[in-house]
Each structure stands twice: as C-alpha cells, then as structure tokens.
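Here we describe the complex-level prediction in full. Unlike the single-chain runs in Section 2.1, the two entities below were treated as one system.
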Amino acid sequence: MSDERDEASSAEPAEPKAAEPEPTEPEPAEPEAAEAEPKAAELEAAEPEPKAAKPEPAEPEPTAAEPKAAVAVARPAELPAWSRWVAPLVGLGAAIGGGVLYGPPGVVLVLAGVALVSVIALFWQSLRTLLGETPLSGADAYALGAPRTEEEQKRSVLRALKDLEFERAVGKISDDDYKQLVVHYRKEAKRLLRVIDEQNAPQRARAAAIAAERLAQLGLAPKSDEGGAAAREEADRG
Amino acid sequence: MWQSLPEFGTVVLYGILIAAAYTFAVSIAAGTGRPRFLQAARHGAYGTIALVGLAVLTLAYAFVSHDFRLSYVARYSDRAMTTPYLFAALWGGQDGSLLWWLFLTSVFTGGCVWWMRRKYLELQPYVIATLMSIVMFFGVLMIFAVNPFATQAGGAPVDGAGLNYQLRNFYMIIHPPSLYVGFTSAAVPFAFAVAAMITGRLDNEWIVATRKWMLFSWLFLSIGNALGMLWAYEELGWGGYWAWDPVENAACLPWFTASAYVHSTMIQERRGMLKVWNVFLICATFFLTIFGTFLTRSGLIASVHSFAQSGIGIYFVWYMGFIAAASIALIVYRLPMLRSEGRLESALSREAAFVLNNWGLLSICLFIAIATIWPRISEWLWKQESTVGPPFYNFWIPPVAILIFFAMGLAPLMGWRKTTPELFKKGFVWPTVAAVATIALHLALASKLRFPPFVTVENLYAVPSPEQVAQMSWLELQGAMMVHYVGAGVAWVNGKLPLVTIALCGFNVAVVVQEFVRGTKARQNAALERKEPESIYTSLVQLVSKSRRRYGGYIVHVGIVLMFAGFTGRAWGTDVEATVMPGDRTRIDVNYEVEYKGTRRETDTEKMTILADLVIYRNGVEAGTLSPSKNIYKSMPGQPSTEIARFVTVRDDLYVTLAMANPQTKSASFQFHVNPLVSWIWFGMGVLILGAMLSLWPEVQEQESRAFAYVRAAAAGATGIMFAILLASSGALAYGAAGSRAPPAPAPDAVLTAPN
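The structure predicted for the assembly as a whole is:
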C-alpha cells in the first residue's frame, strides 16, 4: 500500500552530487503529479517545444496556446458553455418542483424525463459528429495526445531517481549502492532525453520558424530573422 | 397511472443494447485513428449511460407508484413500505440488482470517459469499447433472462409481497451498493488493460492510469465486505461476523487479487518487472467480480445470501469463458512486449517482500475459491457432494494470513533492488524491540486481561477409528495418517497464533511509526541544508501531503493491524447457552454475569416484538441492561426473526441472542457470546478507509488555492472519521429484523411460542 515513487520529493533532499554531470532534469518535485510534472518541467528545460505541441493531460481546461483540435475533443461541439451547467440545474429544479407537487413519484418522473432528453441530445450530437456536421479537426490532437514510449520510460527513470534520493535520505540504501544506481539512472535519463530531443527537433524548428515569422511581421525580429517564412518552409520540409 | 410503463421499460432495455452496440462499433472504428469517431463514441457512451439511468428511473417510478403489474415490483415491495426501502428494493431481488449493477457500471464508464477527456487518446477507443461490451452483456442478460419490467402472468395484485424483512436493515441499504461499487469499478482497470494489450502500449502509461481506479475499487470492496460483516454480526444472530458462506467468499475473492495488484503495480512502476503478473491480476480481479455475481445468482452453490435460483447461470458461464479466453489470448499475443525489464536481485529487497505478499494473497484467494466450489468439484470427481464448513477455513487460512501480515511489515523496511545486511538490521531494530516488548507485555498481562498467549486448537483430522481402518486400503491409511500429522502441525501453529499475531501487531505499528519518523527527519535535514528549518509538525504534514500514496498506505496498514487484533480476539471468546427463569443470574465468564428480569411485549403496525430484559453485571458491578428480542411480522407470522443485543466495551462485546421465550412458564433461552476486541475490527476498518482515501485524494493543482486544498483535506479527514464512527457505533444504527440463518442459529419454528 505504500508509494514507491513519491517519497523522494517528500523528503526534498539536496540534489545528488554524483560523478556524472546532471542531465537537464527538473528538480524532484511533487510526486503524485509525477505524470504531469516532469513533462511541464522538461518543456522548460529539455524540450523547449511549445506547450501546444502536447496537450497536458492533468489540466482541466486548455490554454490559449493549445490547438483547437484539443479543445474540440474536450467539449461537445456547438453547445454553448453555459448550457452544460444550466441544463442540469433546470432539471434539478424541475425535479424538486415535481417532488413538492407530487412527492417521490414526481421527482422520479421528472428525472426520467431529463434522462430521456439527455439520451436524445447526446445521440443526436454523436451522430452529427460522426457524419461530420460538427466542427472537429482532431487529427492533430489525436496524434499529439499519445505520449511516446521513451517519454514513459523517462518518467519511470525520473521516479527512480527520486526514490533513490528518498531511500538515501531515510537510510534504506548504502552510499555505494546509491552512487552506482544514480549513475546508471542518469545515464539512462540522458539517453532518453537525447532520443526525445531528436524526435522533437522538427517540431521545435517549426515552432521557432513560426515565432520568427511572427516577430518579423511585428517588426521585432533582428534582420537575420527576416527570412522567417523561408525558415518555416524549410522546417516544414524537414 | 402510466399504462405502457412495462413496455416502455423493455423498450429502454433494447435501447441500451442498441446504443451500447453502436458505441462499441464507433469506438472500434475510432481505434483506427479517426478522432471524429472517437468524439462520436464519447457522446455515444454518455448517451448509453443516460439510457441506463432512464431504465433505473423507470423501475424506481414503478416502485414508488406501486405498479404491481411488474412482477419484480410485486415480489419485492408492498404499499406499507417507506420510500427509502422502496428505493432499496431496486437491488433487493435478482432482476433489479442486475439492472443496478449495469447502472453502476455505466456510472463508472461515464466517470472514466469524462476523466480521460484529452488523456490516453490512443487507449480511449478500446477502453470505451471494452466498457461497452460489458454493458452489452448485461443488456442481453436483462432482455433475454431477467427482465425487471416483465409483467405478472395473472395481472396486477392488490398489494405486493413486500421486501424480505432480513433486507429491511440499515446495512442492507448500503452494503450491496458498496460491494457493487467495488465490483463494477473493477471494470475500468480491466478496460485499460485490454486497451493497452490491443494497442501494444504496455509501458507504465496504463499502469499509472489504472492505479487509482483499482485502489478505488479495492476501497469499496473493503467497505462492502466490512458492512457485510457488520450486517451478519448484527442481524444473523449467531455471534460471529464471517461464516465463510459461498457468497461472502465470492465477495472477498476480488479483494485479494486487487490487494495483490495495488502492491505489485509498484514493482512495475519502479522496476519494470511483473508485467504479465499485473495484467493477469487485473483480468483476474474483473473475472472474479463476474464469478462472484455468477455464484450468487446461478444457484450453483447453496448459500443463505443467494438470490432465487434462475437460468442466468449459463449466460455467465459463457461470459466468463469469453473473458478468460480473450484475456489469455491478449496476454499471449503481447507476451514479447510484457517481458520483465529487471530481475529479482536479492531476497532482501522490497520486490521480494511484495512478491511474498502477492503469493500469500493469491494462495488464500485460490484456496477460498476452490473450497467454495468444492461441492461441485467433489460431485464431479466422486459423484458425491462434499461441503467444507467454517472450521476448515479457520483451520487452514490463519497460518498463511499471518505470513502476509509479516510481509506487510517487512516490505517498508527494505529498499528497492537490495538492502545491505547492515541497513536491514538498522531498520529492524526498533520494530523488533517493539515486537519483543509487546510479547513481554502480553505475557505479563495475559492473566489480568484473560487473553492467554497460547490456546488449544483441535486437529480437524483425527486418527482413523479401528472401524475406518478396517475399510481402508494401506495407501488410504497412509494418506489419512499423513493428513492427521500435517493437521496436528497446523493445529500446533494455530495454537501459538494469538501471541504471534499480537507480537506482529506491535512490529507492524512500530514499522509505520519508524517510517513516519525517518521521513520527517529526512525532510527536516533537507530543510536544514536549504537553511529553511521546519518544525516537526510542518515536516510531518508536508511529508504526508506530498507523499499521500505512500503514507496513506501506511495508515491503511495500521487499520489492518487493528483488524488483525480484532480477529485474534475470537480465540479468547466464550460461548454460553442458558435457559433461565425470571430472577435467575447466569455467569457467562469471569467478567460477566447476567440477571434475567422477564419478558415484555411491544406492538406496532407491522409487527409484535417480544423483548427479554437482562441486567448486565461486569466484574460484579451493574453495568447496564440489554433487551434481545424476537419480532413476529404480521405478513410473515410463521417466521419470527431475531434481534440481538450487545453490550459494547473496548475490551469486548457481550452479544446476546434470545433463542426462545415461553410466555406460559416465563422461561427464556439465550445464547451468550463474549467476543473480545471485536470493536477493533470496525475501528480498524475506519482507519483503513481514512488511509485509502488519503492515498486516493487527487493532487492539488497549481491553480488551486491553498485554502481550498485545506478544505479538501478536511473534507477527506471528516469523511474517513464519519465512516469510522459509522462502523464503530454499529449497534445504534442497525435496526429492522432478521431471521436466524447462519451456523448455530436455531430453526425459526422452534424458537418461539407466540404469546396470546
């Protein structure tokens, strides 16, 4: 029942001073959020691609930078945002009213009516989506939403490093074992980061090109960046 | 009255099947990489769930409007029932409980689809498809086998038969739904496992996704089983809480595999090992939830908890066969990707302790499963039905359970991969000291507390009598003698278990305390290095709040320690039967004496109650009164039911059952049970719930304000404490009536002579 990947951060030990140079790792942080946190941190440190390139699973609402496709996947298309809250409230109010007027049968009957309307609305929405009558361009989101194997492995290695820190802090591992293992894990982390970095290079170049092009449009770019559009085309080709 | 309600309900059931099939098909199509289809499937899943909700509400309407045209409504309700019981009747019988099962599965499907949103996009189509396949199975089952909207053949009666009085009980309102929640939520991890195997995304992604779902399922299986124990203890009147009934066994089987999984998953997360094992455990947990349902409803094994025998067994057999075949096929298909990334490097490692724990849990699970279906196995093998009873389970399970209990304390002392002997000894010192101190304390206080460290346990397997020997072949005799000697060894071990268990309780508590202390110290040292010193309180709170899963798990361990202490108490129990006249005093044990004052009668609109008043003396001092009773319901006058009474203290419960009261002679027969430490079980369950909720509690998002985080933490704590109080104060909450159905209970018609 105990957590094996949490504890490093709970002890918040100092960053290990091992012989290997530190890879571009974030400092061990909140453990339970490990699925999300290393990703957020590595976007800053190791993978400077725009956040839009990877819809963040843990966040409830998409940021402005996220692609429209991700937003489309998250929300029923063409339904006003307020309807998601107002409709259930209206149903609840009607059920209470039914209960006041007709007792428990009234409550149940109104709720059944609400369920029936929901069934119709949801299948109507499903069929419209299926037939292409709703604005959805989720191809990008679909492609971007699936983390690669290396990213999963990287998370695992990061957790292992955090665990090692905690185990050393509470005296469950000898210094020799600690040093041996930390070198092993860091080497593995560096390898994985390198692979991920290489995989992300085209997207990063494309993002840089878009930024350069935009800056050029705004007149903020240095002269050498004036060829942003050309760079973008180059990145796209790459 | 809604004239076409039965037809409408049946149409909704057909609608569920069609909607689930549509969503299943669209989900499979989405698996080929079509995001539009995925979005349509998500809407389809929500629509199907709403449709299931509509079916439940339609049936609920039939109950509250007393539509006795429906056979199910007529069988399980009447006009006198109050609204809460009318709703409880939804799962009071087989047809409705399957609909309720489907409803809960749908609720979890909806929760899962909503939770996934933009996560696990490659797994999503297959997760939804798997969940929809489960909905389809229950849809088929209800349409073709147990339609709750089926009408009465002879038209609607004036009034219904009413819900069984044994089910008109607080715990029976909440116990089945809790178990069902545990059972049905196990479908989500199963769906993720299937999706991971189909897509080949077998890294830690799906393990991380399913972790909390499985813990949630495990928590509700724990709550459901605990409430079942409480119901049995309060209502069945035989003095115990677990009778190894087939249905009780079926309910606890998935708990064992889920417990094994929540531990072994950590090995995969941390070391990339046991991948096949984890997939197997998830599939086995889901399979066992279906197996439990099958056992309860098929009539395969006779049980006091079973629903009426019906023809649905064959549907379940086919479905279980399909689940098993599909799971095995997928595992074999993905075997190359499920290879372990590491190996067990040392016996002194956390992996080894977890593996020991898993073996123990699976051994008990397998043992119980085989013993439960032993009547059918023996019938198949020897054409003769043979049943194993509670003594068999109580004889064989404790030695294995104590090993798991030891492994529970052992694992936190170990590091991953290997623990050097020096560090192992260092970690062991204080827990060992605590265990030795506990032993010394127990030995010193044994006579004062009357908790002897050793007890005599009889060997279940006697030496064959000369008559038996005469009929045996040489080989059979050797076999019987071997079983006798093994039994003698197990009996000897069981006789020592009270002291061993109490010592391990001390050991386990010390391990948990040590983990908290070491973690807090480590945090303080780290804070000092940063030149930002923290108080002990701050360090402790931060430690727990930042590692909720680990420290929540330790709190769960404390709950289990309390429960083990409570289970051990049964070894020191006393059972007495007595027939007394008014004014007689009866000694139960060295602590308790009771004086019988006489009987009295109370009557209300639905029943007559015969109460027998007893004055309780504890250590010679009057401590209170108890009034166990018999209820005679007007609708079922031939089936008087028993209402037990308890005198509860921290040390023990005095549990009294009125077996018989004779209004002519004024004599009364009672069964007295002194159950030491039994309240510790309920309190331990409360602690377990608190710890599990702490582990489950979601992370505070960066956007969330600190104040709200505290509110959530307070809400979690309050909920856990409320559960603990609810369980611990069970005596005040249980009400209603129950018949005597479990082991030593007398036959109803023999227990009472109704007064004039």
